[in-house]
Amino acid sequence: MDDFVVDRVLLAVEQIPPGRVAAYGDIGRIAGTSARRVGSVLRGYGDEVPWWRVVGAAGDPGGHLLQHARPHWQQEGIVVKPNGLGCRIADYRADLESLQAAYARALDEVLAESGTPLPPIGRPATVALAEIGVTTLEQLIEFTEAELLSLHGVGPQAIRILSLALADHGWRFRAQPQPGVT
Question: What is the mean predicted confidence (pLDDT) over 108-120?
Fold first, then answer.
């Protein structure tokens, strides 16, 4: 599994406030991966983050996880619903806009300290990217090629160079949304 995906998922989970939960899919959308991969990351690397704050879409952690999450939930004031399978996600879901904003701030801080520098793409493209806050290669995966090409100063040559640099790390630009699919 890509270390950068692991780091992004763990960083997103760390942003969930105490007493709140987020669905695997919520964390996946924030970190740029799938709900299933979020589960895999937490299974393999989640011991150091508040994994008990991540639940299925119905508020159920699944499997045997509730028995391990229950002490944390009690401490944070999360009540198990009457069916005993999890919590009422409508009552405890973190504000997703605030969670996304907290994640973006935390990611910017991490990347400012340890991000991969952009490859040489020319001054106009570098300035255009800096104007939208992109100064590291990792930040590019948040954008589609079309979004970057719409910036004055970023042309096909810069996109090609950036795409190759991303590919060297096993990354790519965000996929272009399909019409009619949300």
Answer: 84
Give the model confidence (pLDDT) of 129-174 as tens digits.
999 989 889 889 889 999 999 999 999 999 999 999 999 988 889 8
Helices (H), the chain: 3-14, 24-31, 35-45, 65-76, 89-92, 96-114, 123-131, 145-149, 156-168
> The domain containing residue 93 runs over which residues?
3-112
Task: Mark whether 24 and 82 lie in a shared domain.
Answer: yes
Contact (Cβ atoms closer than 8 angstroms) between residue 50 and residue 78: no
- Answer yes or no: is pLDDT of 45 > 90: yes
Q: CB–CB of 11/106 below 8 Å?
A: yes
CA 86 vs CA 12, 37, 43: distances in Å: 21, 21, 18
Q: 150 phi and psi, to 5 degrees?
A: -75, -10
Residue written as tokens 């740029």?
32
Q: How many residues does the chain have?
A: 182
Is 143 within the bounds of a domain? yes
> What average pLDDT score do residues 57-76 get?
92
Same domain, 131 and 155: yes
